[in-house]
Design goal:
With 80 residues, this protein is mainly alpha-helical. Strands 1-2 form a two-stranded antiparallel ribbon. Strand 1 and strand 2 form a beta hairpin. Helix 1 packs antiparallel against helix 2.
Length: 80
């Protein structure tokens, strides 16, 4: 596991570490206390990935289309 705070991770960093956490938990050779810590870290990583995906979806949704369905510009997204 990385010592990087989850809130500072990019989507790619968080996803890579989440995959490691899941792999460790699936193997089942981790002590109970460590499993709990891994699970908590995994939950935080999952939340970070979901937040970063939501940000990306909002940016994509802000692309405006013309009458023919072609991109015609960008509409500012509130809060970004």
């Amino acid at each position: 596991m990385s010592d990087t705070p989850v809130a500072e991770m990019s989507f790619e960093q968080a996803m890579a570490e989440l995959e490691q956490v899941v792999g460790n938990l699936e193997r089942g050779d981790v002590a109970l206390d460590d499993s709990i810590k891994l699970y908590e870290r995994g939950a935080a990583l999952k939340a970070r990935c979901e937040a970063k995906l939501k940000e990306a979806e909002e940016k994509v949704a802000a692309i405006t289309l013309d009458g023919k369905g072609q991109p015609s510009g960008l509409k500012p997204v509130e809060g970004l």
